[in-house]
């Protein structure tokens, strides 16, 4: 008596990065010090360079605990100190020295640097409304062009991926940068679709050649933040 052959089953499987791909955890720096008209921030190459606020140092500690066991092979920061301050707890846990990737610094806001962007946003400046309507930073007088910003971000991500095949890396950067990375990865027609990553949040990108794959955006579970 013959027995029926076992039917082949095709299961669903969890995502696995392609061979040679790089997993990039993009961490927005912790909350920075408030802007005050009477006490302007230091500048680095014309960009505001505030310290972390006490809340931001707490964000940094929580990020360090969250990523400590994630097989991170390398750390990157920008030229602005709030990123290196946010990376410090994780760097200490892993025994790694962060490298500087200057091209992942925040968008240059021209005449609105040194806290003025925060002030004018709070006050409802008419250019802020135009900025959101047109989805362009460079409506701000003297601001970096969208073409320059987008080009340097794309080149920097490609450079980091090429240097780290089959590795996981953590990049401590800025809200505008994270927004641009994910707008490019998703080919979003709305260039500001991914603005608003929270301070201390973790977003996850997989880069395989020219293919950028979004795995998660604005993960704040380690910050114990409720849905807002």
TrEMBL record:
CDD domains: HP_PGM_like
Matches recorded under InterPro entries: His_Pase_superF_clade-1, His_PPase_superfam, PGM_Phosphatase
Entry protein name: Phosphoglycerate mutase
Residue ranges of the region described as Disordered: 1-20, 30-60
Top-rank taxon: Bacteria
